[in-house]
Amino acid sequence: MPARPELIRPDDAATAAAMGRAMNALTALLVALGEGSHQFNIVAERTNDTIVTADLSLSAGASPLRVEHTEEGYLRFFALLTFALEYSTIRRAVLVATTADEPFPRACGWTVRDGWLHPMDRRELQEALTPCPDVTAPLRLAYPAPALYHPDEPTEENAHE
Q1: Contact criterion met (CB below 8 Å) for 69 and 56
Q2: Are 68 and 58 in contact (CB under 8 A)?
Q3: Non-local CB neighbours of 93 within 8 Å, separated by 6+ positions
Q4: Contacts of 150 (CB under 8 A, 6+ apart)
Q5: N or C: which end of the chain has fewer CB within 10 A?
Q6: C-alpha radius of gyration, the chain, whole number
Q7: What is the pTM of this model?
Q8: Which H, E and C letters describe the chain, residue by residue?
Q9: pLDDT tens-digit series, residues 136-146
Q10: How confident is the model over 4-63, as pLDDT tens digits?
Q11: Rounded to an integer, what distance in angstroms lies between the CA atom of residue 56 and that of residue 78?
Q12: Measured distance CA(46)–CA(92) in Å, rounded
């Protein structure tokens, strides 16, 4: 018997649907956070008890819209976000966005639940941002994460149709 349970590969349809949600989530993150330099960190606990992480640094600007990032960082981050949103191989996941700001960077976060990103409250995020003893980390001002637009959820306007 293996020390860790085996991961069961999700079917192609579930993965494709999760990829669509991941693209929608990244778009919603950029719209919610706006222009600036952003650092995204995702930490996930897999069903075989391993922890996986990915990060993505990007800058978003308008006129014309541009998003700058490294290809390798984007691919790893997108893959982990996809499998977190698909959730058959991920037990739990948290995504934290840190935006460069003066005098301190500011951060907000989301937990992955039911195939989407749900805002963390300030207290929950502050606990997640507190560095371990003997670890130096920059001070980040925590704020409540905005709810992200989910294209598959009804809006107020079309909920009554």
Answers
A1: yes
A2: yes
A3: 42, 43, 44, 45, 80, 84, 111, 112
A4: 24, 28, 116
A5: N
A6: 17
A7: 0.81
A8: CCCCCCCCCCCHHHHHHHHHHHHHHHHHHHHHHCCEEEEEEEEEEECCCCEEEEEEEEEEECCCCEEECCHHHHHHHHHHHHHHHHCCCEEEEEEEEEECCCCCCEEEEEEEECCEEEECCHHHHHHHHCCCCCCCCCCCEECCCCCCCCCCCCCCCCCCC
A9: 666 778 888 99
A10: 556 566 678 888 999 999 999 999 998 899 888 899 999 999 999 999 999 998 888 776
A11: 9
A12: 7
User: Which residue's entry shows tokens 């919603």?
Assistant: 28
Which is it for the CA torsion 122, 120, 66, 138, positive or negative? positive
Token match 């897999």: residue? 46
Torsion of the alpha carbons at 52, 87, 38 and 97, rounded to the nearest 10: -90
Distance CA 125, CA 131 (A): 12
Q: Hunting for tokens 């992480």 — which residue is that?
A: 53
Do the bridges between strand 116-119 and strand 51-61 make them parallel or antiparallel, or are there none, so unpaired?
A: unpaired
Backbone angles phi, psi at 140, to 5 degrees: -125, 135
Provide the greatest CA pair distance for the chain: 57
